[in-house]
Write a structure and sequence with these properties.
Layout lengths: L10 H27 L6 E2 L1 H10 L8 H9 L7 E2 H13 L8 H11 L6 E3 H12 L1 H11 L1 H6 L4 E3 H10 L7 H9 L4
Helix pairs in contact: 1-5, 6-7
Protein name: EF-hand domain-containing protein
GO molecular function, one term: calcium ion binding
Keywords: Calcium, Metal-binding, Repeat
């Protein structure tokens, strides 16, 4: 007789399950975006593919911009971004608390991960997911109002383009860990 999975017993169990579900969702979105950017399906993302992806969302790259995006994460210096480099770039940027990690490609990937209908814009809800993951619950409303000042004032649903998203995200710093969070990370097994 197959065993039934036990329901979570504690708040920590629920939080752990929620975190695992979130990681699985994130990885599925990351794979979807990699496949979208790798338009020739060779397992590598090159400049031409990044330029096409940017044009699809209404953004024309400046000369050298896509080369810089690749150079920032191209660990083996082959002029392309492969899957391990792509995942490494994403993980480094997500966990960066200094704001020093290069974010050119990351901002495009993050935008595409949340542009669920591939329409070249993200909605207020999609933006709120990004802001929540970066800043947490306490800063969510403030950051949303900064992003959509006019819409927040009159309740209009607003959409944001990649250019607007990039401009705003470049201007803000990632969430910094408190001394307590740093101490907990050090005391945590494997930390």
């Amino acid at each position: 007789m197959p065993s039934r999975q036990q329901a979570p017993q504690t708040t920590a169990d629920v939080a752990s399950l929620r975190e695992e579900w979130q990681k699985q969702k994130e990885m599925a979105n990351l794979k979807r975006v990699f496949a979208m950017l790798d338009s020739d399906s060779n397992g590598l993302i090159g400049e031409k593919e990044l330029n096409r992806a940017l044009l699809r969302i209404g953004c024309r790259a400046k000369p050298g911009e896509t080369a810089d995006m690749i150079w920032e994460v191209d660990e083996n210096c082959d002029g392309f971004v492969d899957w391990p480099e792509f995942v490494s770039m994403f993980d480094r940027c997500i966990s960066d608390t200094t704001g020093l990690e290069p974010r050119g490609l990351f901002q495009l990937v993050e935008f595409l991960m949340h542009d669920s209908n591939n329409g070249g814009t993200i909605s207020r809800d999609e933006l709120m997911e990004i802001l929540y993951s970066r800043f947490g619950k306490d800063q969510l409303l403030k950051k949303t109002r900064e992003f959509f000042p006019k819409a927040a004032a009159n309740g209009v649903e607003a959409a944001i383009t990649f250019v607007e998203f990039k401009r705003f995200m470049t201007a803000i710093k990632p969430k910094r860990k408190t001394n307590r969070e740093r101490a907990q990370a050090v005391l945590k097994p494997g930390g």
